[in-house]
Amino acid sequence: MEQEKFSTMISKIREEVSNLAFFVDMTRKGMDTIESTLTIGKEKFPEASSQLSSVTGDLENAANNIMSILESRAARTPALR
To answer: Does some domain include residue 58?
Structure first.
């Protein structure tokens, strides 16, 4: 009878350890995914920042060109002065 209790207890312990091992493995895989995502973000952020700066400069230039065109047209059109 004691042997059966002992075997049952060992079986339950094995099941719990197996569940814990599965949980640890899934957590490790999740952390690996997070780490790779962070690494990609860390590599891509400077590139994206540079591209946004470039776009901002281009937008400023375009706005200045539009304003120059409008100002020159306004100067030539008496109704807009």
So the answer is: yes
* DSSP secondary structure code for residue 9 in this structure: H
Q: Write the DSSP assignment of 12-71 as a string of letters.
A: HHHHHHHHHHHHHHHHHHHHHHHHHHHHHHHHHHHHHHHHHHHHHHHHHHHHHHHHHHHH
For residue 15, give both structure tokens: 């099941």
* pTM, rounded to two decimals: 0.47
* 71 domain residue, yes or no: yes
Q: Quick: pLDDT tens for 49-71.
A: 888 888 898 999 999 999 999 88
Report residue 76's pLDDT band, with 50, 70 and 90 as the boundaries.
Answer: confident
Nearest Cα residue to 44 out of 33, 54, 55, 36: 36
Domain count, the chain: 1
